[in-house]
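Bench notes, bay 3.
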Amino acid sequence: MEIGEAPERVPGERVGSGREAEVFVYGDGEVLKLLRPGNDPGRADVEAAVLGALEAAGYTRPANVVSSRSTGGAGSS
């Protein structure tokens, strides 16, 4: 899923919330990060690149992260 596309599955339980996004369980070993309106989706791309670099260097990384912009439904509070 590309940033800005609607989620393909129904998100599960919310497991995190912060200034920029909310994070939901999104299947086996994945989370869905819904960016709050007004946040730069490019930051999610940078985060994904950093996580990939950490993994390539042998570090443990968080579960697979799927990012999307919030459209005002769940995750937009």
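Next record in the batch:
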Amino acid sequence: MTQDKTGVAVWMVGIIFGALAAVIHVLVPEQGLTFLWVMMTTMILGCWKREAPWRWILLVVPFVPIADIAHKLLRPQQVSRASMWGAVLIALVAVPGAYGGSYMRQMINNIFGTPNE
């Protein structure tokens, strides 16, 4: 794939990962699963495109609070305040995921001698 096609693909995959994180957060009552999913997906994106890992945080994380607010508007009796704060705290696990993936890619490049992108 060329650089342009890979760039568009990674952004589309990031949007899909964010939407899936929102679905997991709303449908599964376990916060830990959402945290693990967000960390895993931001790590994959950070490893895929290692420059500027902060953009993967900004791409994946906003889907979760937006979906939580939409769910609260549709079914106000089913959403707790803890769930709302958990949606905001997703950003805390996205940071080590994205930067960890970026550093992992840098380490792989250093060990195997692949050129920097």
